[in-house]
Design a protein that fits this description.
With about 190 residues, this protein is α/β, with parallel strands linked by helices. It is built from 5 helices and 12 strands. Strand 11 and strand 12 form a beta hairpin. It starts with a strand and ends with a helix. It binds glutamine (GLN). The site of glutamine (GLN) has 12 residues, from helix 4. One of its GO terms (biological process) is L-glutamine catabolic process. Its EC number is 4.3.3.6, 3.5.1.2.
Length: about 190
Amino acid sequence: MQIGVLALQGAFIEHEHILTALGASSFEIRQLADLSRSMDGLIIPGGESTVQGKLLHDLGLFEPLQKMLNDGLPVFGTCAGLLLLAKHIANDERRHLATLDITAVRNAYGRQLGSFHTIAPFADCGNIPMTFIRAPYIESAGANVEILAAVNEHIVAAREGKQLVTAFHPELTDDATVHKYFLNMLK
Ligand code: GLN
């Protein structure tokens, strides 16, 4: 299993560490040439969606990556990665890769609650730790989107086909449940 990790900005190294611990190999995507390597799936990390979106354009990665996603490349986006994949963002006129049929709310928890930690059920995997950092949530989702987790009645993890997103950062905890879920999705 070979996973490409978008490594332009944000928390990408943490994803690589979890993948290594799970026995999956990974490589960093920093420039166009990296997209020609064979990959079973892609991870888009947390960070700043606006910065990552701009860098994707500046580096000429945006269109090829969007095409690969539309052609079915499996993807896992955390936090800013969720925003990069969302078809709609309720409180931001920017759109990015826009391949996943959700409406996200950016910085949805305001300043006071910008960062918090909780434990909640994920898919059929039981309770897992969830770390939120200036996180979005999903306000609504299309008919083909499966809801995988909700916290305070807001959707915080979802899947449409082979696209998986979490508003929280599983790579910042020592729980590998969500990464295992993603790797199982690729089989
Ligand atoms: N607030 C960031 C954004 O809007 C996301 C934060 C994160 O990825 N931890 O892109």
